[in-house]
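Hello Y.,

Per our agreement to keep a running log of every chain we model this quarter, I'm adding this entry. I've kept the format consistent with earlier entries: sequence first, then predicted structure.
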Amino acid sequence: MNEWILTLRGALVLDTATIVRQRDRRSGVFDGFVIIIVVALLVGLPSLAISTGKGLDRGAAAAAEMETAADMFGRALQQAAPLLQSLPSSIREQFLAQVRQSFQTGAEIAAGIVDLPRILPYPIPSLLKSIGDWLSRPFQRSGFPLAAASLATWLGYGIWVMLSAKLLGGRGSLSGFLGATSLFAVPHILNIFGPVPVLGGFMGLVAFIWGLLIYIKGTAVSHEMTAARAFLAVILPILAVLLILLFSIMVGAVALIGLIAGNR
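Predicted structure for the entry above:
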């Protein structure tokens, strides 16, 4: 336990010796799995508590779902209003009344289904769903690479960074690279404040920048390259994706312009 604490603390201060030890450990990749899973699960505890609390309050959960459905239904009617303006007012009002009645009937049927007996007594299904969502957090992709402690991002994005580092003269092994860069997940414990308005977003930004610095340092140490080259290796996959998207947009725009010009 003492060694784990020293490793996590060393990662937070970007200690080179700590990252070198993590790179050289035979169990470095396994340790990386453990670090990311533990951090992701700790970050998910507030969401687990919130979803569990909502699940236990059956009436509140059903009411919230119905309120959301009613809101979506109201917006759909507003969006459809311009399409109905051409109808005579009497027919339009009759049509809208029938639609509202159908929605109300559907809501009553849904409420009846919720109250039907189940194989598992309430609230066990809700609890199992909340726990399942929580346990799946480490395997979910973050919206942006390295923006969250995620196994999928660490492994998937890491392969492309590894390739970029090799192209830039890196000499590290895949296991050493993954072991060293897994420490990027440590600052993401700050994402536990995610549900808190404003503070959650700020802490998420701090965690991302902090984790990115650790990832760059881990790339540099594992591949025995400068920090500048490591930074370039980390951003090259993102730049490549952006260039591909930009190229696709340009090709699409040129094709559209050619099609319009040809129809004139």
